[in-house]
Amino acid sequence: MFFLTPRHIKQAREMAKEARKLLAYKRDLWAAKGSGTVEEFEAGIRTLETATQSRKKEAIEEAGRKLEELASARLEPVSNPGWRENCEVFLVAIVVALGVRTYFLQPFTIPTGSMQPTLNGIIGYKTQESPPNILVRTLQAVTHGRTWVEVVAEEDDMITSVTETSTLGFFTKTHLKGQKSEYSVNCPQDTLMRYFLPQAGPFKKGDVLVRGYYETGDHVFVDKISYHFRKPRRGEVFVFNTQNIPTRENRNSGMQGPSQYYIKRLAGLPGDKLQIQPPKLFINDGEAQGANFGRVMGAQNGYRGYSNESEGAPDARGYAPRFPLNWTLREPKEIFKVPSKAAGDEEDCYFALGDNSFHSSDSRDWGPVPQRNLMGCGLLVYWPFAKHWGPMDGWTMGGK
Q1: Is the CB of residue 369 less than 8 Å from the CB of residue 259?
Q2: How open is the CA angle 119-142-261, to the nearest 5 degrees?
Q3: 301 backbone φψ class: left, alpha, beta (φ>0; ψ -120 to 50)
Q4: What pTM was computed for the model?
Q5: What's the pLDDT tens digit per position in 216-261?
Q6: Which residues of 312-321 are buried (b: 16+ CB within 10 A; e: fewer)?
Q7: H helices within 222-290, ranges in order?
C-alpha cells in the first residue's frame, strides 16, 4: 500500500517524475546544444527508476545524487532570483486583487451628501482655533480622514481668482490669487468654496481667510456577488451605474458623458407604487416599513424626512438654492409605479432615493434604475474609523 512505502522510494519516484517534466521543458534547448545532453539526462532518469525498482536505499541515493548533478550542470543560474521572486509575488497579488475587485468586492468613496447622515460625503467645518500640532493632525488624518486648512492674509489684498490643480490625480490644491499675493490650500476647490467661502476682500494683513478642517467621504466596500444569487431587497443601500440614465451630469453632456456610480437607498422594487407625503414615504398604499425608512421619516438626528422637492448643496452661508425635480413624486398626491416585466414593461426597474431627501438627485429627478445597471449592495464602511465604520446600514436589515 502507498502509505507503507518507504520514504526514500517515494522521494525517488517524485524526483524521477519532476526530472521528466524538466526534460520535456528543456528538450529543444538542450538538443540544440548537442553533445548528448538529452541522452545523458534520459540515462540518468532511467538509472534512478531502475534503482527505485530494486528498492535498495544506497543505489537510490547514488542515482539521485548523480541525476541532481546532471541537472545542476545543465541548468543556467537564474540572475537576480530575489528580484524575480518578489516581482512574481507582486504580480500575483495584483491579479488576485483585480479578480476580487471585478467579481466580489469593489471599493468606493462617497463623494456627496445625498445619503447623509447615513453615509457622509466630504464635509467641511469652520473653526475659531488654529490647526493642532502635526502629531494630532497626522493621527486625525489616519483615523478620521481629516485635513486641516488655514490661510491668514500676509498683507492687505483681495482675491482675484480661484483655481484648482491636481498632482498625480490624488493631491489636490486650490490656489487663491490676489493682486499682491497668492495662497495655496490643501483642499479641493468645490469643498473650499462650499464650506469655507474664502473672503474675496478687501482684507487686511492678519485676517483669517480660511480656517477649519474637512473630512473625506466614507469609503465603502460594495458586495458585487450577492445579486447573482438573490434579488435586491427593499431598504438596502445599493450601487448602480448611470449609463443611459438621464442624471444631471448625463443631461448636461447630452447623454455623451462617462457613466458614473451612484449609491442610494433602494426604495421601490419592480411593480411597487410609491408616494411621498412629507415627511412620509408610502409604498403600496402603506407607510414604508423598516428601520432604515423609519429613521428618515422620523426627521431627527440629522434626518429631515422625505420631500417632494430638492435643494442644492448649502454653501458656507447656509444658502441652498432649490432645483426642480424632472421625473416624478413632485407633489404629495402623485403616485409612481416602478416598471416591472411582470406588468408588461420592457424590464424590471428599481426606485432609488437618497436618505438626505432635500439634497439628493435621485429617481425623483431622473427616473427608475434598470436591472442591467445594478452593480451590488453596500457591504461595509472600511474607512475612516469613525461612527459609520463597520457593516453598512441596511446590509443585514434589508427587508424582502
Answers
A1: no
A2: 35
A3: left
A4: 0.74
A5: 889 999 999 999 999 999 999 999 999 999 998 888 888 887 889 9
A6: eeeeeeeeee
A7: 248-252
Query: Where do the H-state alpha helices sit in 212-290?
Result: 248-252
My answer on whether omega of the bond before 77 falls inside 30° of 0, hence cis, is no
Specify the long-range contacts of residues 179-183, CB closer than 8 Å, at least 24 apart: 180/155, 180/156, 181/153, 181/154, 181/155, 181/157, 183/151, 183/209
Q: What is the pLDDT of residue 190?
A: 87
Which distant-in-sequence residues (6+ apart) come within 8 Å of 31 by Cβ?
Answer: 37, 38
DSSP letter, residue 355: S
Q: How far are the Cα atoms of 188, 196, 213 from residue 124, in angstroms, in the given order?
A: 11, 7, 6
Q: Which residues of 64-100 are buried (b: 16+ CB within 10 A; e: fewer)?
A: beebeebbeebeeeeeeeeeeeeeeeeeeeeeeeeee
> What's the mean pLDDT when you consider all of the chain?
86
3-state secondary structure at position 377: strand
Q: How far apart are CA 36 and CA 89, in angstroms?
A: 37
Rounded Cα distance between 110 and 121, Å, is: 5
Q: CA of 9: how far to CAs of 14, 67, 143, 162, 342, in Å?
A: 9, 15, 58, 78, 68
Cell of 190: 468645490
Please give the grid coordinates belonging to residue 13: 519516484
Quick check: 400 pLDDT over 50?
A: no
Residue 79 neighbours by CB under 8 Å, 6+ apart: none
* CA proximity to 16, closest of 61, 71, 64: 64
Residue 263 phi/psi, 5-degree rounding, is: -125, 125
